[in-house]
Amino acid sequence: MRGDNGFTLIELIITMAVLAIIAAMAAPSMNNLLLSQNLNKSTQTMVSVLNEARAQAVLTRQDVTVNLSIDPVSPTSDQLAKMKQKTLFGWSPSGKSALKAAVNPIVFDMTGKLSSSTADIKIEVCNEASGKKSKVITISRIGAIQRVIEGTC
User: Fold this and answer.
1) I need a surface site. Which of 32, 39, 56, 133 has the fewest CB within 10 A?
2) How far apart, in Å, are the Cα atoms of 122 and each of 2, 10, 108, 131, 150?
3) Domain limits at 87?
4) 84/142 Cα distance (integer angstroms)
5) Does residue 1 fall inside a structural domain?
6) Which of 53, 90, 54 is nearest to 75 (CA)?
7) How would residue 109 be classed by pLDDT, with cut points 50, 70 and 90?
8) Of 46, 63, 57, which Cα lies nearest the Cα of 138?
């Protein structure tokens, strides 16, 4: 006696329906994962820019400025010249990330310390899409840069 091989049409439809239900349950989780990764990427990029600016200030023994903008903007010709000389660095949010509030330009002096502030600077990067997750970057007066807190906006 010969056995049947393969799926019947009903079995195939039921299998596809089960897979569709599983995919529908996974979609919100995947969206949250992508938003979280975008927030991580933005904060890591900011920390990298700040570390590079601090290192450049120590290396060249001159003040280096970092402009953190709320919206992506095109730099002026003067700013482009300073960027080429590595005395001006910029950061703007990517994707659904945004700064919670405007931040004054951050200036590192020739020793790597903050010369633009007498207190620690806290910068909060929020996730605009959900508005629930945020990361706080702290720059101490001596120039140490830390990503310390995960919070809510």
Assistant:
1) 32
2) 74, 60, 15, 18, 13
3) 9-151
4) 26
5) no
6) 90
7) very high
8) 46
